Structure formats: C-alpha cells, structure tokens
Amino acid sequence: MGKEDRRPIAARSTGWAQALSAALARSSVTPNQISVLSIFFAVIGAVGLLAAPSLLGLVACIIGVQLRLVCNLLDGMVAMEGGKQTPTGALYNEYPDRIADSLLIVALGYAAGMPWLGWLGALLAALTAYVRLSGASLGLPQDFRGPMAKQHRMFVLTLACVAAIIEQWVSHTGYALQVAAVVIVAGALLTCITRTRAIAAQLKARS
C-alpha cells in the first residue's frame, strides 16, 4: 500500500505517535503483529460491551476501542515511516480491521438488546470496506469518506459507552447503546451509497 492509499489520520503527525512508532520500528515488533494485536483489544472491548450496563464493562470497551485504534494507527506508521513493509502487509492491514469491527459491532447489538442490528451493522461495516477496495481494484484512489467510516464508527461506539455510563448514574436506562447501533447501521449504509456513487462518477468521467 502506497502513502496515497492510506486513510487520512490527523494523529499520525502528533509527537506521541511519531515517537512510539519510531520506537517500535527500532524493535523486533512487526507491523503485522501490531495489526493482529488490534483484534485482541477489540475482543476486550466486545467482552466489555457484553457485560453492559456494568460500569467496568463499559470502561473496558472504551479502553479496548481506543487501543484498537492506536494499533490501526501504528501498524501503518511502522510499516511506512519505519521502513518495515512486508509483502503481506496489505492483507494484515485489512483482515484484522474487518474482524475487529465485527466483534465490536455485533457485541454492541447484543448489549443494546437488538442482536440482529449488531449483525446487520457488522455486515454493512464490512461492505463499506468492500466498496472502497472495489474502487481501488478499478484503478481509482481508495475512498475513505464517511459519514460512517471506521474511525466514525468507533467514535460513535465510544461516545455511546460514555453516554451509557452517565445513563446508569442518572436514569438507569439503556438507550445510548441502542441509538449507537441504529446510527452505525444507518451511517454505514449511507457510506456504502456515497462511496459507490463517487466510484460511478469517477468511472463515467474517465470514459
């Protein structure tokens, strides 16, 4: 994967990310190992969600999601800036993401009391990546637009966990996770549509 095909992430330019990626690049840790580690943190987040409305579970989910995103940031930085690219790097850049997304979104559906919505959200999340890669297979730049790309889905999930914690203190209701599941499904569907339309427009312009 070239730099032009990377997801734009503002945190990539921060001092802590550059320092940590440089340290990892000097170590024996590989970008592929960092990618696989993201699944481990997604499992922590998913288990935390399944324990909801437990405060400890919700906090575990927040931490798991954020560490998953840190792995997603660092694997590419170590590979590209650290000069540790591998022939299989493109596979490890995609497959763990799909697994991590599915674990977290399916668990969200169960935590919200609507398992079917979690499975649908996981399917649509995978479809957003499929549409993006379909465009790339046609010779177009990878399109990371939202409104519900990976980082947006994880933001919604994190925000929902924070809101769920507040709910437990204030009203003992469980609407936050339900709303998040609906938002992720609707947003992922819209993302598939916007990316598909953008690909179609580029193909027509190219013909």
Notes on the protein architecture:
The protein has about 210 residues and is mainly alpha-helical. Helices cover about 75% and strands about 0% of the residues. It is built from 7 helices and no strands. It has helices at about 15-25, 30-50, 55-80, 90-110, 115-135, 150-170, 175-205. The model has no long low-confidence stretch (mean pLDDT about 95).
Strand coverage percent: under 5%
Please state the overall shape, judged from the principal axes of the Cα atoms.
Answer: globular
- Number of E strands: 0
Q: What is the tally of helical segments?
A: 7
Biggest pleated sheet: none
Q: Into which percent range does the helicity of residues fall?
A: over 70%
Secondary structure category: mainly alpha
Written as H for each helix and E for each strand, in order along the chain, the element string is HHHHHHH
Using only C-alpha atoms, the radius of gyration works out to 18 Å
Quote the distance from N terminus to C terminus. Answer: 26 Å
